[in-house]
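Comment thread on ticket #2218

A.B. wrote:
> Attaching the input chain for the structure job we discussed in standup.
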Amino acid sequence: MRSLMKKGVAYLGWGLQAIAALCLLGWLQAGDPDCEYSTNLFAQLRMCDPAIVGEPQAQSWLRFALIIGLFVVGLLCVRWTRKSK
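C.D. wrote:
> Ran it. Output below, let me know if you need it in another format.
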């Protein structure tokens, strides 16, 4: 029973780390403005001029801290299962 619980906590830790990695990727790309695309016959143009799409918004450092905290919790879960064998 205890081994099953350790395995569950290890999977939870790996899952939390994967979610934190995806959230970090989203946080890094959140500052990129939502560009408009113009399609011609042979080319697709990405228009990111601030006059067209507006200024990019600043990213929240609180979100970044929460993402890092989520990763650390996942890391601690995995380390706890490996250390207590």
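A.B. wrote:
> Thanks. Noting for the ticket: Helices lie at 2-29, 50-53, 61-83.
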